[in-house]
Amino acid sequence: MEEIRVSTTERAYDVRVGPGALGRIGDYLEGADRVAVIADERVAGIHGDRLEQALAGAGRGDTPWFLVPAGEACKTVEWFGNAQQFLLEAGCTRKSTVIAFGGGACGDLAGFASAAYMRGIDFIQCPTTILAHDSSVGGKTGINLPGGKNMTGAFHQPSAVLYDTDLLETLPPEEIRSGMAEAVKHQLISPDGHARDMLVTVDYSEMDEQTLLHYIVSGIRVKAEIVGRDEREGSVRKFLNFGHTYGHAVEAAAGYGGMTHGESVMIGMLYALILSEQLTGADRGLTDALQRFSERNGYPLRSVAGYPFEQLYGYMQKDKKASYGELHFVLLPEDGHPLMNKADREQCRKADEELRKRLGVLT
Ligand SMILES: NC(=O)c1ccc[n+]([C@@H]2O[C@H](COP(=O)([O-])OP(=O)(O)OC[C@H]3O[C@@H](n4cnc5c(N)ncnc54)[C@H](O)[C@@H]3O)[C@@H](O)[C@H]2O)c1
Ligand SMILES: O=C(O)C(=O)C[C@@H](O)[C@H](O)[C@H](O)COP(=O)(O)O
Ligand SMILES: [Zn+2]
Protein backbone atom coordinates (compact mmCIF):
# COMPACT_ATOMS: atom_id res chain seq x y z
CA MET A 1 0.00 0.00 0.00
CA GLU A 2 1.35 3.43 -0.97
CA GLU A 3 0.69 6.36 1.35
CA ILE A 4 0.90 9.98 0.30
CA ARG A 5 0.33 12.82 2.75
CA VAL A 6 -1.46 15.95 1.52
CA SER A 7 -0.89 19.07 3.65
CA THR A 8 -3.09 22.08 3.08
CA THR A 9 -4.08 25.06 5.20
CA GLU A 10 -7.56 23.53 5.68
CA ARG A 11 -6.22 20.17 6.87
CA ALA A 12 -3.65 17.40 6.31
CA TYR A 13 -4.78 13.93 5.23
CA ASP A 14 -3.63 10.56 3.88
CA VAL A 15 -4.13 9.15 0.43
CA ARG A 16 -3.87 5.36 0.67
CA VAL A 17 -3.46 3.63 -2.67
CA GLY A 18 -3.41 -0.09 -3.39
CA PRO A 19 -5.38 -3.33 -3.48
CA GLY A 20 -7.81 -3.62 -0.58
CA ALA A 21 -7.50 0.03 0.55
CA LEU A 22 -11.26 0.15 1.25
CA GLY A 23 -10.71 -2.26 4.12
CA ARG A 24 -9.06 0.60 6.07
CA ILE A 25 -12.22 2.72 6.16
CA GLY A 26 -12.78 2.04 9.87
CA ASP A 27 -9.52 3.90 10.70
CA TYR A 28 -11.18 7.15 9.56
CA LEU A 29 -14.66 6.81 11.07
CA GLU A 30 -13.92 6.67 14.77
CA GLY A 31 -15.24 10.11 15.73
CA ALA A 32 -18.26 10.14 13.40
CA ASP A 33 -21.73 10.10 15.03
CA ARG A 34 -23.27 9.01 11.70
CA VAL A 35 -21.87 7.86 8.38
CA ALA A 36 -23.65 8.24 5.02
CA VAL A 37 -22.62 6.98 1.59
CA ILE A 38 -23.21 8.89 -1.66
CA ALA A 39 -22.48 6.42 -4.47
CA ASP A 40 -22.50 6.29 -8.25
CA GLU A 41 -25.32 3.84 -8.99
CA ARG A 42 -23.31 1.82 -11.52
CA VAL A 43 -20.34 1.51 -9.18
CA ALA A 44 -22.66 0.54 -6.31
CA GLY A 45 -24.05 -2.24 -8.52
CA ILE A 46 -20.62 -3.61 -9.39
CA HIS A 47 -18.58 -3.02 -6.22
CA GLY A 48 -21.04 -1.92 -3.52
CA ASP A 49 -20.68 -5.19 -1.59
CA ARG A 50 -16.98 -4.44 -0.93
CA LEU A 51 -17.74 -1.12 0.72
CA GLU A 52 -20.70 -2.65 2.58
CA GLN A 53 -18.43 -5.37 3.98
CA ALA A 54 -15.77 -2.85 4.96
CA LEU A 55 -18.39 -0.72 6.75
CA ALA A 56 -19.87 -3.74 8.51
CA GLY A 57 -16.35 -4.73 9.61
CA ALA A 58 -15.97 -1.25 11.12
CA GLY A 59 -19.26 -1.61 13.02
CA ARG A 60 -21.10 0.67 10.56
CA GLY A 61 -23.45 -1.87 8.99
CA ASP A 62 -26.42 0.52 9.42
CA THR A 63 -24.97 3.20 7.10
CA PRO A 64 -27.58 4.69 4.75
CA TRP A 65 -26.75 4.83 1.01
CA PHE A 66 -27.83 7.38 -1.57
CA LEU A 67 -27.42 6.34 -5.21
CA VAL A 68 -26.87 9.03 -7.83
CA PRO A 69 -26.91 8.68 -11.64
CA ALA A 70 -23.73 7.17 -13.10
CA GLY A 71 -21.04 9.59 -14.23
CA GLU A 72 -21.48 13.21 -15.26
CA ALA A 73 -25.30 13.12 -15.04
CA CYS A 74 -25.11 13.53 -11.25
CA LYS A 75 -23.25 16.87 -11.35
CA THR A 76 -26.40 19.00 -11.52
CA VAL A 77 -28.16 21.50 -9.28
CA GLU A 78 -31.02 18.99 -8.99
CA TRP A 79 -28.84 16.14 -7.71
CA PHE A 80 -26.99 18.52 -5.42
CA GLY A 81 -30.37 19.41 -3.86
CA ASN A 82 -31.37 15.75 -3.63
CA ALA A 83 -28.11 14.95 -1.86
CA GLN A 84 -28.69 17.74 0.71
CA GLN A 85 -32.16 16.36 1.43
CA PHE A 86 -30.73 12.84 1.80
CA LEU A 87 -28.16 13.99 4.37
CA LEU A 88 -30.88 15.73 6.36
CA GLU A 89 -33.20 12.71 6.29
CA ALA A 90 -30.29 10.39 7.16
CA GLY A 91 -29.89 12.34 10.41
CA CYS A 92 -26.42 13.68 9.59
CA THR A 93 -25.05 16.36 11.92
CA ARG A 94 -21.89 18.44 11.97
CA LYS A 95 -20.15 15.42 13.53
CA SER A 96 -21.06 13.07 10.66
CA THR A 97 -18.94 11.80 7.78
CA VAL A 98 -19.96 11.34 4.15
CA ILE A 99 -18.32 8.69 1.99
CA ALA A 100 -18.06 9.43 -1.75
CA PHE A 101 -18.01 6.14 -3.69
CA GLY A 102 -17.48 6.44 -7.44
CA GLY A 103 -15.45 8.30 -10.03
CA GLY A 104 -14.69 11.99 -10.24
CA ALA A 105 -18.28 12.98 -10.98
CA CYS A 106 -19.71 11.36 -7.85
CA GLY A 107 -16.72 12.58 -5.83
CA ASP A 108 -17.24 16.17 -7.00
CA LEU A 109 -20.97 16.05 -6.18
CA ALA A 110 -20.57 14.31 -2.81
CA GLY A 111 -17.70 16.63 -1.89
CA PHE A 112 -19.78 19.71 -2.69
CA ALA A 113 -22.77 18.26 -0.83
CA SER A 114 -20.49 17.80 2.22
CA ALA A 115 -19.04 21.31 1.85
CA ALA A 116 -22.52 22.85 1.87
CA TYR A 117 -24.45 20.67 4.33
CA MET A 118 -24.61 22.52 7.66
CA ARG A 119 -21.88 24.72 6.08
CA GLY A 120 -19.39 21.89 5.95
CA ILE A 121 -19.01 18.36 7.29
CA ASP A 122 -16.28 15.73 6.86
CA PHE A 123 -16.09 13.48 3.83
CA ILE A 124 -13.90 10.63 2.66
CA GLN A 125 -13.11 10.03 -0.98
CA CYS A 126 -13.26 6.38 -2.12
CA PRO A 127 -12.40 6.77 -5.80
CA THR A 128 -13.11 4.02 -8.33
CA THR A 129 -11.62 5.30 -11.60
CA ILE A 130 -8.11 6.01 -12.87
CA LEU A 131 -9.08 9.63 -13.41
CA ALA A 132 -9.96 9.96 -9.75
CA HIS A 133 -6.25 9.83 -8.83
CA ASP A 134 -6.64 13.50 -9.80
CA SER A 135 -10.19 14.36 -8.71
CA SER A 136 -10.14 12.77 -5.25
CA VAL A 137 -7.09 14.76 -4.13
CA GLY A 138 -6.93 18.51 -3.58
CA GLY A 139 -10.42 19.48 -2.48
CA LYS A 140 -11.97 20.93 -5.63
CA THR A 141 -15.65 19.95 -5.47
CA GLY A 142 -18.62 21.09 -7.53
CA ILE A 143 -21.28 20.69 -10.18
CA ASN A 144 -21.87 21.92 -13.74
CA LEU A 145 -24.20 24.62 -15.02
CA PRO A 146 -25.55 24.28 -18.59
CA GLY A 147 -23.32 27.23 -19.56
CA GLY A 148 -20.08 25.99 -18.03
CA LYS A 149 -18.19 23.17 -16.38
CA ASN A 150 -17.79 23.08 -12.55
CA MET A 151 -19.29 26.56 -12.28
CA THR A 152 -20.73 26.06 -8.79
CA GLY A 153 -18.64 24.52 -6.07
CA ALA A 154 -16.30 24.90 -3.15
CA PHE A 155 -12.82 24.07 -2.00
CA HIS A 156 -13.37 21.42 0.66
CA GLN A 157 -10.63 18.94 1.49
CA PRO A 158 -11.51 15.31 2.25
CA SER A 159 -10.46 13.86 5.59
CA ALA A 160 -8.93 10.85 3.80
CA VAL A 161 -8.69 9.23 0.37
CA LEU A 162 -8.94 5.43 0.17
CA TYR A 163 -8.06 4.42 -3.35
CA ASP A 164 -8.70 0.68 -3.75
CA THR A 165 -7.01 -0.25 -7.01
CA ASP A 166 -8.80 -3.64 -7.16
CA LEU A 167 -11.88 -1.72 -8.30
CA LEU A 168 -10.18 -0.45 -11.45
CA GLU A 169 -10.34 -3.89 -13.09
CA THR A 170 -13.90 -3.31 -14.32
CA LEU A 171 -13.25 0.01 -16.08
CA PRO A 172 -14.22 0.12 -19.78
CA PRO A 173 -11.59 1.28 -22.35
CA GLU A 174 -12.95 4.83 -22.66
CA GLU A 175 -12.58 5.33 -18.90
CA ILE A 176 -8.98 4.04 -19.03
CA ARG A 177 -8.31 6.61 -21.77
CA SER A 178 -10.03 9.32 -19.79
CA GLY A 179 -8.10 8.72 -16.57
CA MET A 180 -4.75 8.30 -18.26
CA ALA A 181 -5.12 11.74 -19.89
CA GLU A 182 -4.78 13.32 -16.44
CA ALA A 183 -1.80 11.05 -15.73
CA VAL A 184 -0.16 12.37 -18.92
CA LYS A 185 -0.97 15.92 -17.78
CA HIS A 186 0.79 15.33 -14.45
CA GLN A 187 3.91 14.06 -16.26
CA LEU A 188 3.85 17.02 -18.66
CA ILE A 189 3.61 19.79 -16.06
CA SER A 190 6.03 18.41 -13.48
CA PRO A 191 9.73 19.31 -13.57
CA ASP A 192 10.34 15.72 -12.37
CA GLY A 193 7.99 14.24 -15.00
CA HIS A 194 8.90 11.77 -17.72
CA ALA A 195 6.36 12.77 -20.32
CA ARG A 196 8.42 12.08 -23.44
CA ASP A 197 9.30 8.63 -22.21
CA MET A 198 5.67 7.90 -21.31
CA LEU A 199 4.41 9.09 -24.70
CA VAL A 200 6.70 6.67 -26.51
CA THR A 201 6.36 3.62 -24.27
CA VAL A 202 2.82 3.49 -22.95
CA ASP A 203 0.19 1.57 -24.84
CA TYR A 204 -3.06 1.10 -22.90
CA SER A 205 -3.84 -2.26 -24.50
CA GLU A 206 -0.60 -3.68 -23.07
CA MET A 207 -0.27 -1.68 -19.86
CA ASP A 208 0.40 -3.91 -16.83
CA GLU A 209 -0.80 -3.26 -13.29
CA GLN A 210 2.58 -2.07 -12.08
CA THR A 211 2.88 0.58 -14.80
CA LEU A 212 -0.64 1.79 -14.10
CA LEU A 213 0.05 2.04 -10.36
CA HIS A 214 3.29 3.88 -11.07
CA TYR A 215 1.51 6.61 -13.05
CA ILE A 216 -1.34 6.86 -10.55
CA VAL A 217 1.01 7.31 -7.58
CA SER A 218 3.32 9.64 -9.49
CA GLY A 219 0.32 11.79 -10.53
CA ILE A 220 -0.96 11.96 -6.96
CA ARG A 221 2.49 13.08 -5.75
CA VAL A 222 2.61 15.85 -8.37
CA LYS A 223 -0.88 16.99 -7.39
CA ALA A 224 -0.25 16.79 -3.63
CA GLU A 225 2.90 18.87 -3.94
CA ILE A 226 1.18 21.62 -5.95
CA VAL A 227 -1.96 21.72 -3.78
CA GLY A 228 0.26 21.88 -0.68
CA ARG A 229 1.81 25.09 -2.04
CA ASP A 230 -1.37 26.70 -3.39
CA GLU A 231 -4.64 25.24 -2.15
CA ARG A 232 -6.99 27.85 -3.68
CA GLU A 233 -5.46 28.34 -7.11
CA GLY A 234 -3.92 31.74 -6.53
CA SER A 235 -0.72 30.76 -8.36
CA VAL A 236 0.87 27.38 -9.22
CA ARG A 237 -2.35 25.37 -8.86
CA LYS A 238 -3.40 26.89 -12.18
CA PHE A 239 -0.88 24.54 -13.81
CA LEU A 240 -3.13 21.58 -12.88
CA ASN A 241 -5.58 23.16 -15.30
CA PHE A 242 -3.27 22.53 -18.28
CA GLY A 243 -5.45 21.60 -21.29
CA HIS A 244 -8.69 22.42 -19.46
CA THR A 245 -9.64 25.79 -20.98
CA TYR A 246 -10.22 24.30 -24.42
CA GLY A 247 -10.93 20.83 -22.92
CA HIS A 248 -13.80 22.04 -20.75
CA ALA A 249 -15.22 23.91 -23.76
CA VAL A 250 -15.24 20.67 -25.79
CA GLU A 251 -16.78 18.77 -22.86
CA ALA A 252 -19.54 21.36 -22.46
CA ALA A 253 -20.17 21.53 -26.23
CA ALA A 254 -20.49 17.73 -26.28
CA GLY A 255 -23.26 18.05 -23.68
CA TYR A 256 -21.46 16.75 -20.54
CA GLY A 257 -21.03 13.05 -21.06
CA GLY A 258 -20.88 13.08 -24.88
CA MET A 259 -17.10 13.03 -24.51
CA THR A 260 -15.36 11.98 -21.31
CA HIS A 261 -13.47 14.56 -19.27
CA GLY A 262 -10.08 13.05 -20.06
CA GLU A 263 -10.79 12.68 -23.78
CA SER A 264 -11.71 16.37 -23.89
CA VAL A 265 -8.66 17.35 -21.85
CA MET A 266 -6.42 15.39 -24.24
CA ILE A 267 -7.72 17.55 -27.11
CA GLY A 268 -7.30 20.60 -24.87
CA MET A 269 -3.66 19.70 -24.16
CA LEU A 270 -2.92 19.43 -27.89
CA TYR A 271 -4.51 22.84 -28.33
CA ALA A 272 -2.47 24.30 -25.44
CA LEU A 273 0.74 22.89 -26.93
CA ILE A 274 -0.03 24.45 -30.31
CA LEU A 275 -0.71 27.75 -28.55
CA SER A 276 2.62 27.29 -26.75
CA GLU A 277 4.37 26.86 -30.11
CA GLN A 278 2.68 29.97 -31.50
CA LEU A 279 3.09 32.24 -28.46
CA THR A 280 6.30 31.02 -26.83
CA GLY A 281 8.22 29.28 -29.61
CA ALA A 282 7.84 25.84 -27.97
CA ASP A 283 9.29 22.89 -29.85
CA ARG A 284 6.71 21.15 -32.09
CA GLY A 285 8.25 17.77 -31.26
CA LEU A 286 6.31 17.45 -28.01
CA THR A 287 2.98 18.30 -29.68
CA ASP A 288 3.62 15.69 -32.38
CA ALA A 289 4.58 13.09 -29.75
CA LEU A 290 1.34 13.76 -27.84
CA GLN A 291 -0.71 13.56 -31.05
CA ARG A 292 0.89 10.23 -32.01
CA PHE A 293 0.34 8.91 -28.46
CA SER A 294 -3.31 9.91 -28.40
CA GLU A 295 -4.00 8.50 -31.86
CA ARG A 296 -2.31 5.20 -30.92
CA ASN A 297 -4.41 4.99 -27.76
CA GLY A 298 -7.73 5.71 -29.44
CA TYR A 299 -8.63 9.24 -28.27
CA PRO A 300 -11.49 10.57 -30.43
CA LEU A 301 -9.54 13.69 -31.43
CA ARG A 302 -11.47 14.31 -34.62
CA SER A 303 -14.73 14.81 -32.72
CA VAL A 304 -13.64 18.43 -32.42
CA ALA A 305 -14.91 18.82 -36.02
CA GLY A 306 -18.44 18.83 -34.57
CA TYR A 307 -17.82 21.96 -32.50
CA PRO A 308 -17.09 25.22 -34.35
CA PHE A 309 -14.50 27.61 -32.92
CA GLU A 310 -17.16 30.24 -32.13
CA GLN A 311 -19.03 27.79 -29.90
CA LEU A 312 -15.85 26.70 -28.09
CA TYR A 313 -14.68 30.30 -27.68
CA GLY A 314 -18.01 31.14 -26.03
CA TYR A 315 -17.42 28.45 -23.42
CA MET A 316 -13.75 29.38 -23.02
CA GLN A 317 -14.76 32.89 -21.99
CA LYS A 318 -16.39 31.31 -18.91
CA ASP A 319 -13.14 29.65 -17.86
CA LYS A 320 -12.35 30.28 -14.18
CA LYS A 321 -8.82 31.46 -15.00
CA ALA A 322 -10.16 34.24 -17.24
CA SER A 323 -10.69 37.83 -16.23
CA TYR A 324 -13.59 39.64 -17.87
CA GLY A 325 -12.83 39.73 -21.61
CA GLU A 326 -9.35 38.20 -21.28
CA LEU A 327 -8.38 34.53 -21.51
CA HIS A 328 -5.44 33.09 -19.58
CA PHE A 329 -3.91 29.78 -20.65
CA VAL A 330 -1.47 27.38 -19.07
CA LEU A 331 1.28 27.07 -21.69
CA LEU A 332 4.26 24.77 -21.86
CA PRO A 333 7.27 26.41 -23.52
CA GLU A 334 9.29 23.42 -22.35
CA ASP A 335 8.11 20.13 -20.81
CA GLY A 336 7.93 20.31 -17.04
CA HIS A 337 7.91 24.13 -16.97
CA PRO A 338 4.40 25.54 -17.37
CA LEU A 339 3.57 29.24 -17.24
CA MET A 340 0.49 31.44 -17.53
CA ASN A 341 -0.05 33.55 -20.64
CA LYS A 342 -2.84 35.74 -22.00
CA ALA A 343 -4.25 35.05 -25.46
CA ASP A 344 -6.63 37.25 -27.43
CA ARG A 345 -9.43 36.05 -29.67
CA GLU A 346 -7.33 36.03 -32.83
CA GLN A 347 -4.53 34.06 -31.16
CA CYS A 348 -7.09 31.54 -29.89
CA ARG A 349 -8.64 31.23 -33.36
CA LYS A 350 -5.27 30.67 -35.03
CA ALA A 351 -4.41 27.84 -32.64
CA ASP A 352 -7.85 26.30 -33.19
CA GLU A 353 -7.36 26.43 -36.96
CA GLU A 354 -3.92 24.84 -36.68
CA LEU A 355 -5.29 22.05 -34.45
CA ARG A 356 -8.01 21.24 -36.99
CA LYS A 357 -5.41 21.28 -39.79
CA ARG A 358 -3.16 18.83 -37.95
CA LEU A 359 -6.12 16.56 -37.19
CA GLY A 360 -7.24 16.70 -40.82
CA VAL A 361 -10.67 18.16 -40.00
CA LEU A 362 -10.37 21.73 -41.25
CA THR A 363 -13.47 22.54 -43.28
N1 LIG B 1 -12.19 17.74 -8.46
C1 LIG B 1 -11.16 17.64 -9.26
O1 LIG B 1 -10.03 18.06 -8.96
C2 LIG B 1 -11.34 16.95 -10.58
C3 LIG B 1 -10.20 16.55 -11.31
C4 LIG B 1 -10.40 15.91 -12.52
C5 LIG B 1 -11.69 15.63 -12.97
N2 LIG B 1 -12.75 16.01 -12.23
C6 LIG B 1 -14.12 15.67 -12.65
O2 LIG B 1 -14.25 14.26 -12.63
C7 LIG B 1 -15.30 13.88 -13.53
C8 LIG B 1 -14.89 12.67 -14.33
O3 LIG B 1 -14.65 11.62 -13.44
P1 LIG B 1 -14.27 10.14 -13.91
O4 LIG B 1 -13.48 10.18 -15.13
O5 LIG B 1 -13.75 9.47 -12.72
O6 LIG B 1 -15.63 9.54 -14.41
P2 LIG B 1 -17.11 9.47 -13.86
O7 LIG B 1 -17.19 9.65 -12.40
O8 LIG B 1 -17.89 10.37 -14.73
O9 LIG B 1 -17.46 7.95 -14.21
C9 LIG B 1 -17.41 7.54 -15.54
C10 LIG B 1 -18.16 6.23 -15.74
O10 LIG B 1 -17.41 5.15 -15.17
C11 LIG B 1 -18.24 4.36 -14.33
N3 LIG B 1 -17.36 3.77 -13.33
C12 LIG B 1 -16.76 4.38 -12.29
N4 LIG B 1 -15.97 3.51 -11.64
C13 LIG B 1 -16.10 2.33 -12.27
C14 LIG B 1 -15.51 1.04 -12.07
N5 LIG B 1 -14.61 0.82 -11.11
N6 LIG B 1 -15.86 0.06 -12.92
C15 LIG B 1 -16.75 0.29 -13.92
N7 LIG B 1 -17.32 1.47 -14.16
C16 LIG B 1 -16.99 2.48 -13.34
C17 LIG B 1 -19.27 5.34 -13.83
O11 LIG B 1 -20.45 4.69 -13.43
C18 LIG B 1 -19.51 6.19 -15.06
O12 LIG B 1 -20.40 5.56 -15.94
C19 LIG B 1 -15.61 15.10 -14.37
O13 LIG B 1 -16.81 15.66 -13.93
C20 LIG B 1 -14.46 16.04 -14.06
O14 LIG B 1 -14.83 17.39 -14.17
C21 LIG B 1 -12.60 16.66 -11.05
O1 LIG C 1 -7.15 20.29 -9.10
C1 LIG C 1 -7.08 21.20 -9.92
O2 LIG C 1 -6.78 22.35 -9.59
C2 LIG C 1 -7.40 20.95 -11.34
O3 LIG C 1 -7.51 21.89 -12.10
C3 LIG C 1 -7.57 19.54 -11.75
C4 LIG C 1 -8.39 19.34 -13.03
O4 LIG C 1 -7.96 18.12 -13.60
C5 LIG C 1 -9.89 19.20 -12.77
O5 LIG C 1 -10.52 18.81 -13.94
C6 LIG C 1 -10.59 20.36 -12.11
O6 LIG C 1 -11.87 19.99 -11.69
C7 LIG C 1 -10.76 21.53 -13.04
O7 LIG C 1 -11.16 22.61 -12.27
P1 LIG C 1 -11.82 23.94 -12.79
O8 LIG C 1 -11.45 24.91 -11.73
O9 LIG C 1 -11.22 24.28 -14.12
O10 LIG C 1 -13.25 23.68 -12.90
ZN1 LIG D 1 -9.28 17.53 -15.18
Automatic annotation (TrEMBL):
Q: What reaction(s) does this enzyme catalyze?
A: 7-phospho-2-dehydro-3-deoxy-D-arabino-heptonate = 3-dehydroquinate + phosphate
Task: Give compartment(s).
Answer: Cytoplasm
**Gene3D superfamilies under this entry?**
3.40.50.1970, Dehydroquinate synthase-like - alpha domain
Protein name as it appears in the record = 3-dehydroquinate synthase
Q: What residues does NAD(+) bind to?
A: G104, A105, C106, G107, D108, T128, T129, K140, K149
List, separated by semicolons, the cofactors it needs.
NAD(+); Zn(2+); Co(2+)
Instruction: Report the EC number(s), separated by commas if there are several.
Output: 4.2.3.4
The record lists the organism as: Edaphobacillus lindanitolerans
